[in-house]
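Worked example

This section walks through a single chain of length 217. The input is the sequence exactly as stored; nothing has been trimmed or padded.
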Amino acid sequence: MLPMQGQAVAQPLCGLSLVLALDVSSSVDDDEFTLQTGGLAGALRDPDVRRSIVAAGGIQATALEWSGRYQQVDIASWSLLTGDADIFSFADRIEAHQRVHQEFPTALGYALGHAATRLSKAPLDCARSVIDVSGDGINNEGFEPALAYRNFDFSNVTVNGLVIQGADPDPVAYYRAEVIRGPGAFVVVADDFTDYENAMKRKLLREINGANLASAD
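Given that input, the structure is written out below as tokens.
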């Protein structure tokens, strides 16, 4: 039944709006992409992460793949995660996702702009808003992150990074200097793609628990 005119509608409790953005640029092969989707799903299923989601009063989350200027594709649409059933269903969708793009460069500015737009259209108004961007390289196509931050709405949004180290130029230094932004922003470093799940678990716990000091692992 629709509410009567003027009647207030209470939304579900929501501690965090979280955009999870995974790199599918040409530097990421299919095995490395599978380590990302499987690693993210595994981190979400982790008991500590699930407990943190529940303790936060639930979160709403969406996941997407990004690479070139116009190659941003939804992996899992906005979902309210309040308990194990929601979390496992969301993780299953991420793990089952088939990569759409693989031959495009790394357009980080475009990815951030797209993520901000997705965040602005989230169904619920949550206590905090975070964009969680993973990548293994620096921006090499289109506008830089700084231009995205000037032209899209990032007010009250924190951007954190999960960086797979090893490339040259160094993506870790780049993410720390150019990508992370906002209150408590931080970078977590994965030694390689096989370390992605462990790094993502650490990252999710900090984001969900609302760490309020900017630092980097």
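What to look for: Residues 1-8, 211-216 have pLDDT under 50 and may be disordered.
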